[in-house]
């Protein structure tokens, strides 16, 4: 408890799912947490519920839109005077097809824009605010699909999440001197909500599901808590000597 005391954390894509879980764990550790999501009404409602127990707030906006990102960061600095932790969690395959022939240009753009360009825009704004103020922590969400060829993701998602990893390593080199750590979490398959439940159980054959299970040495799917615990660690001083690293939280399904 108290590992993130006095820290201000922005978690993108946090109206529900892994983002909300990460925000809740960070709040429990003493951080002031700011939830972002493009779904304004849902994130407002989620933040209201979190506020009953923890100091928290929300900034609605699209992470792939520079205007929105600038506005979000200005709001945070106005309200809290600083920002210490950024979790680039917004993303996913965003209801786009997996099969190459079915991927339209707009699908490709959407997946790359939210997962990769969004990570760039928010990181740029974060570095601007923290490089003269003692640094901070950037935690970027990749995926097992960005580490290796995964059966459950398509090429756009694989390219975006692979991109997030190299983006993070390159950025880690550039901003280390300012006390900014940049690390990555690459989760395996996590049933983070109804959407993932549907994706895993309805859109995959029994055979594919069994194959995935058989590939996991620890023999179960991960939980939202597994990912949130990794995020708290990367946000805390316990990871102070780590940067440019990828934490594979996948039960051993892929070992980097
Ligand atoms: N659940 C998994 O199995 C899994 C595995 C590997 C990686 N991940 C990654 O973890 C992250 C969270 O996954 P999840 O399962 O909780 O997904 P989710 O769909 O439940 O949550 C993603 C959130 O991002 C928000 N969002 C989408 N576009 C946005 C935008 N332009 N700006 C701001 N917010 C936006 C959505 O509204 C949603 O609330 C994603 O980056 C995903 O790719 C998830």
Describe this structure in words.
With 256 residues, the protein is of the alpha/beta class. The protein has one domain (8-192, 223-249): Rossmann fold. 45% of the residues lie in helices and 14% in strands. It is built from eight helices and seven strands; from the N terminus they run E-H-E-H-E-H-E-H-E-H-E-H-H-H-E. The protein has helices spanning 17-28, 40-51, 66-80, 105-130, 155-175, 194-201, 206-214, 224-235; strands spanning 8-11, 32-37, 56-60, 85-88, 136-141, 180-187, 246-249. A seven-stranded parallel sheet has the order 3-2-1-4-5-6-7, with helices on both faces. Strand 1 (8-11), helix 1 and strand 2 form a beta-alpha-beta unit. Helix 1 (17-28) crosses helix 8 (224-235), helix 3 runs parallel beside helix 4 and helix 4 runs parallel beside helix 5. The model has no long low-confidence stretch (mean pLDDT 97). The structure holds nicotinamide-adenine-dinucleotide. Nicotinamide-adenine-dinucleotide (NAD) binds next to helix 1, strand 2, helix 4 and helix 6.
Uncertain segments of ≥5 residues (pLDDT<50)? none
Q: Helicity, in percent?
A: 40-55%
Number of strands: 7
Q: Give the spatial strand order of the biggest sheet.
A: 3-2-1-4-5-6-7
CATH superfamily: NAD(P)-binding Rossmann-like Domain
Per CATH, which architecture?
3-Layer(aba) Sandwich
The DSSP helix count reads 8
Which kinds of small molecule does this entry bind, naming each only once? nicotinamide-adenine-dinucleotide
Instruction: Please state the overall shape, judged from the principal axes of the Cα atoms.
Output: globular
Structural class: alpha/beta
């Amino acid at each position: 408890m108290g590992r993130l005391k006095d820290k201000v954390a922005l978690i993108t894509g946090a109206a529900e799912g892994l983002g909300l879980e990460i925000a809740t764990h960070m709040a429990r550790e003493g951080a002031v947490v700011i939830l972002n999501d493009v779904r304004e009404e849902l994130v407002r409602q989620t933040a209201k519920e979190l506020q009953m127990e923890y100091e928290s707030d929300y900034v609605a906006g699209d992470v792939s839109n520079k205007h929105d990102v600038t506005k979000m960061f200005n709001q945070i600095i106005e309200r809290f005077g600083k920002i210490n932790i950024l979790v680039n969690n917004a993303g996913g395959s965003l209801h786009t097809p997996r099969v190459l022939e079915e991927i339209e240009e707009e699908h490709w753009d959407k997946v790359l824009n939210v997962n990769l360009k969004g990570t760039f825009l928010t990181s740029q704004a974060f570095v601007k605010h923290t490089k003269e103020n003692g640094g901070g922590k950037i935690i970027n969400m990749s995926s097992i699909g960005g580490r290796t060829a995964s059966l459950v993701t398509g090429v756009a998602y694989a390219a975006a999440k692979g991109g997030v990893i190299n983006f993070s390593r390159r950025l880690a080199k550039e901003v280390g001197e300012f006390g900014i750590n940049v690390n990555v979490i690459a989760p395996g398959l996590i049933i983070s909500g109804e959407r993932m439940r549907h994706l895993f159980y309805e859109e995959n054959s029994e055979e594919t599901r069994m194959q995935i299970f058989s590939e996991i040495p620890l023999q179960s799917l991960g939980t939202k808590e597994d990912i949130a615990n990794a995020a708290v660690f990367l946000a805390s001083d316990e990871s102070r000597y780590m940067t440019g690293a990828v934490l594979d939280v996948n039960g051993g399904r892929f070992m980097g």
